[in-house]
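Researcher: Let's try something more involved. This one mixes different molecule types, so please make sure each is placed in the same coordinate frame as the others.
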Amino acid sequence: MLRRIALWIDDRLHLSKLFDATAGHPIPSSASSWFYVFGSGTLLCFVIQIITGICLAFVYVPSASDAYASLEYLNYKLTLGWLLRAIHYWGSTFMVAIMTAHMAQVFLFGAFKYPRELTWISGVALLFCTLGMAFTGQVLRFDQDAYWGLGIGAAVMGRVPLIGANLVNLMLGGPIIAGGTLSRFYTLHVFVIPGLLIAVVTLHLRLVLTKGINEYPTPGKLVEKGAYDEEYKALLKKEGVPFFPTAASKDLVFAGLVTLGIMFCAVVFGPKGPIGAPDPTLIDTTPRPDFFFLSLFAALALLPDYLETPIILAAPAVLIVILFALPFISGTGEKSVRRRPVAALSVIVVLLALVTLAYLGGNSPWSPHMNAWSGNAVPEKFVKGRSPLELRGAAALQNKQCRNCHSLGGEGGQRGPALDNVAARLTSDQLVRQVIQGGGNMPAYGRNLSPAEVAALVAFMRTLHAPNEMPARDSAVPGPPGAREKPTIK
Amino acid sequence: MAINENVSNRMTHSGRSRRGFLLKLSAALNLLAAALIGVPVIGFLLSSFRRRIRPGSWISLGSLETFPENQTRLATFRNPYTRPWDGTTADIPCWVRRTEGERFQVFAINCTHLGCPVRWFQESRLFMCPCHGGVFYEDGSHAAGPPPRGLYEYKYKVENGHLWIEGGYLPTLAEPT
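Model: All components are placed in one shared frame. Result:
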């Protein structure tokens, strides 16, 4: 009976034919590899994001006045609301990470070469859509980070020549970051970009079916236009296996691990934020983007200012052109990474750069520690046994907020050099000059310090050196060793 | 035979031209319809590309007594262009520096580098930015870090014992206050 129902349904819908044409399509047996699981892993994350996103949309209020409260409601009042938010957040994190792995694998295995150019191009489009989802999603967590993140976006738009002001207005949906801004990012995050993603994923999968999965590359086997299609057909005939179940089982194992990973992080670490109400008058805030954009955030701090606007505006365009043009620049020839040292090196360099920048972005050593001057006292060893003048200097060092940028005993800002050993590097004259005139990325304090304060400050800093180290001295001043300043060893 | 051929030729010809006409008509009709829908839709979507709201709104920051001489204080105002659902996002802060008498400097809160909120430090008389380490002197000029210029300064006037500034939109490099 069941069999008859199944046959009836199949007769009407041709499901078994559909299955043969999709999940049953032949792939080279070499492509049934653990390296090939990242694409389906990314897709799985996307499905999880859709499901949890729809759940969140039942409750979330995309209004500037109420979004924050609805997030708190999700976190603290609604049954399992926190878990849904956590899965959605960690799902996005996993999605970006696995997508990056997929892209690196495809690049290293030469899968973008003839005849899979369009597969690569649609994949690049998916990369930008996913990053778009990450940014708009971060905005929907409408807290202080989201507010000032939008401010950074608007400031970047404002650097575009001629139409900058118009672009800012278009992005914000009004003259300031407010209700109109959230509404448009909500529309982008919930309707526009997911629609694009679904359309392009469909195209991407269609191309995987029409042009086949890339075979595991063999060093020395070159791709030639014309010859490749025949070779691939012969390869499928010789050692083709159906995608399901041979390769699919590996995909499914990975899918299970990914889902477990997302759930583990969601349950253990919980949802992110919201961190602080989106009230711009609460200015004691330290805005930081989500991890996907930390490397960008760091690059913006480290670029020299004269390069900043050109790079901010040109780099995305150059990147897009390079990525889209790649399969046409290097569409044939060697696939194996063992014979493509430049490809291997560029992946290593790009990943290292991204990770290093993201690490720096998380630490932000260039940011002043706003509370160091009042929060981190001068360590005892630096004040013990000092003269009254030097102690006055230590007090001035705190009061004038030097510690916001200069650390002592490992505490304080890292924007400027640590002062633990400053006397060994600079003479009294150099210290006076540096304090009064600034320079080398330090503001000039000449107008804010009395001569007495400068004298005390410098007297204190002259004591900051290791016990076994001489303080720096002006070598232009002649004289026997005794004429030098005496090291103040305590 | 010859006549029949002729007839059938004519028929295919006229049939083809009728079909061709219909195809052209349908294309033209649907292009027109698409334009009728598309133009307002695109116009709607891009309407905020053209900025209708011209700045030039004078906003009171409160009476002069709230700003002591030689001090820099945080002031907040309700942005003049708001929607009912803007909530706290329409409360905009700014830094007011009263040098002497009726001479002021009113700075936007946004760092000129990438828009983060700068904080005032009274003792060192500096503004510091928490994002990328931009620093400004008390008169708003650039002191250190990546910002390409000094702080944005609002136009101000003193009227009826109140301090007024001209504002209403987020200042950026493309459009300083």
